[in-house]
Amino acid sequence: MTRVGNEFELTVDDVAHGGWCVGRHNDQVVFVRHTLPGERVRVRVTEETTRFLRGDAVEVLSASPDRVEAPCVFSGPGKCGGCDWQHASLEAQRRLKGEVVAEQLRHIAGIERAVVVEELPGTPDGLGWRTRVRFSVDTDGHAGLRRHRSHDIEPVDRCLIAHPGVAELGITDVTWEDTKDVEAVASSTCADRAVVITPTKARLSTLPDLTASSAVLRRFKGGRVQQVKGRRGVRETVNGREFRVSAGGFWQVHPAAGVTLTDAVLAALEPKPGETAMDLYCGAGLFTGALGDAVGPEGRVMGVESGAEAVRDARYNLKDLEQVRVEQNDVAAQLREWADVRADVVALDPPRAGAGTKVVRSIAGTRPRKVAYVSCDPATLARDVAEFARSGYKLVDLRAFDAFPMTHHVECLAVLEPVNPARRHREDQG
Q: Per-residue pLDDT averaged across 2-17, rounded?
């Protein structure tokens, strides 16, 4: 018989990757949400596997000193799944995230390293930062947010981590006919806004009146986005350079992340005038542009991105830099074409699935003196760091940034260098 719905008490031992904490009940591992290490809680089982249970802490019997009242009424067992740590102080959230990153490095890559998660400026309460929010729409046309590990929709009248530019659109205040989901996008540096609508029918239904002006786009099955009204996206400015970013494309969602990560990547790589740089998974060209400015007209930057819209954005954004070239291709395939290229520095910011063995080995084959690897998933980052080690590159620095307060997500920057830099130099000279 299934144990889903059963309740029992346990003491929580440690934090686990993914917004969970872990304890044991009758010698079986139990992953628990809405709790903190050291707490005694009553757990309701939500999922059962042959190896472990998942559950929610529905009652706290002995609270951690790090516990706080969740600021959002939609946060808690069985409610919105968007935030994992609203019940923890911000200081505790960052400490827990650092412990998760350290544990993943230790367990997967065999690296012992203490990790300190840095606070990003501009959000001292951890709220109002998310510049892109995708709302799901129920059968009555009401917009809400998905519950944890569920297709069920939690009706909400606001999202506290949404950027003010998103909140001002009033997505949850209107009815959306024949709509599957609505993504709200707000620029963090200007007044641009956009909504991307995924309809349930072939034709786009009459749209409701929003409380703030915005561009409107339609998302088709397969991800293609079509312009309906206004701009194709929003404009963002980072370190004096303006970027056009398609509404359905990738951009860092925390307002301070663009500047913080760009500065961190440049500090890590120390690109010099005249050098050759690669920017893999380059998106709209955030790091590509900074590297282009750093290597100057005598250098070159080679960017790769698979998304057609992002490539169009990157080429437009960097059209003033003749030393920059952006290719539309799968990164692994493009690196095979560039097998004879020797890069001095490489930046990469892959999706959550990470770079993978083929890409890591190809990067090592270009013999860069430094690699800056930006990642939003510590597990795949640790896996790829281990592959870099097998390819002759060691982890020399790691920074972590709290770019997603109230959630379990954390942005990391791993810096890698050749284990034997003298050999790399001899090979290049020879």
A: 96
Measured in Å, how far apart are the chain's first and last C-alpha atoms?
69
pLDDT tens-digit map of 264-304: 999 999 999 999 999 999 999 999 999 999 999 999 999 99
C-beta neighbour count of 331 within 10 angstroms: 23
What's the rounded Cα separation, in Å, for the pair 130 and 165? 9
349 is in an annotated binding site: yes
| Separation between Cα atoms, residue 166 and residue 128, nearest integer Å | 9
User: Mind telling me the catalytic residues?
Assistant: 376
d(Cα 22, Cα 32) in Å, to the nearest integer? 6
Please check if 181 is assigned to a binding site. Answer: no
Q: Is the pLDDT of residue 423 over 90?
A: no
Nearest to 250 by CA among 304, 199, 307, 288: 307
Which residues, 6 or more positions from 326, have their beta carbon under 8 angstroms from its beta carbon? 282, 285, 288, 303, 304, 305, 311, 314, 315, 318
Indicate the pTM of the whole model.
0.96
Ligand-binding annotation for 281, yes or no, is yes
**Residue 177 CB burial class (10 angstroms; 0-12, 13-18, ≥19):** middle
Mean pLDDT of 72-81: 96
